[in-house]
Amino acid sequence: MHKTMNRNSNVYTVIYATVLTVLVAILLSAAALGLKDKQKANMDNEKKQQILQSVASKLGKDVTFENAAQLWQELKMDDAMFCVNTKGEKVEGQTAFDIASKTLFNAGKIREDATLPVYVANIDGVPYRIVSMYGAGLWGPIWGYLSVDPEGKVAGVSFDHDSETAGLGSKIKDDPAFAAAFIGKNLFTDGKFTSVSVTKAGKPANYGGDKVDAITGATKTSDYVGEMIYQSLLGYVPFIQGGNTASGCKKHEGKCNHDKETCQMEGCKKAECTPEACGKEECKAQCGEKHECAENAECDKKAECNACNKAE
Fold this sequence. Notes:
Order of helices and strands: HHHEEEEEEEEHHEEEEHHHHHH
Oligomer: single chain
Helix content: 25-40%
């Protein structure tokens, strides 16, 4: 006669608990795998939101989690990102979006061998270059994105944090007025990188350039934001200044300080901007197809024409 297991025995309890644990583990694993793609998509969308928030003032609208993907597509951001090294040179073989900002730093300073992500948002014909920032906050990591206009001024910023104090340090993310205060600030003074400091009202800038007032009651977090901006942008300085080949533009005898996009917008009107700096096609447009004005001493575009002829 078949015997049933005693449900009150220790053996039954152990077997029951083991089977139940295995079943729950299988269900949780299946759920995690099923949600993995969605979780990744949400994380990517949040990153897109943070990047585009740095140019929200130029877009003339808020960038939200709901509209971030659409704005990203409209601006063709997937085709407008690349990587540079700390010399400002373009780096092939890596996708900017896949780079985690925290991996670029060692002991709070940007690594010399770091590969830096760059995003370019072309808005109303103006290219805004967006760079990544990362640093230590008061209670945990802080990070963000800063956009630079063609003149080297801050076009906008976005900040985020892991565990800053609610209602105080958290305002680096939650207070729109704090982010807005950075717009229009100069990153360079007389050609020297001076960043944008964050100090108490009435106190001078830490680096000799422009500054933003610290958040009341969150001086320490504000200090860390200023340090993050300075240390993060140090790696981008050669690229931002334009003395690089990342955008396909080279300086001509130190005279042409415009990146390629800006030079094209201006139609290569400056004589010192040669085809090497601005592109041969733009120069041709100024000279004419046959460079007929090159033979005319009265032609006000003679210098550009000569540059075109020389390039050919």
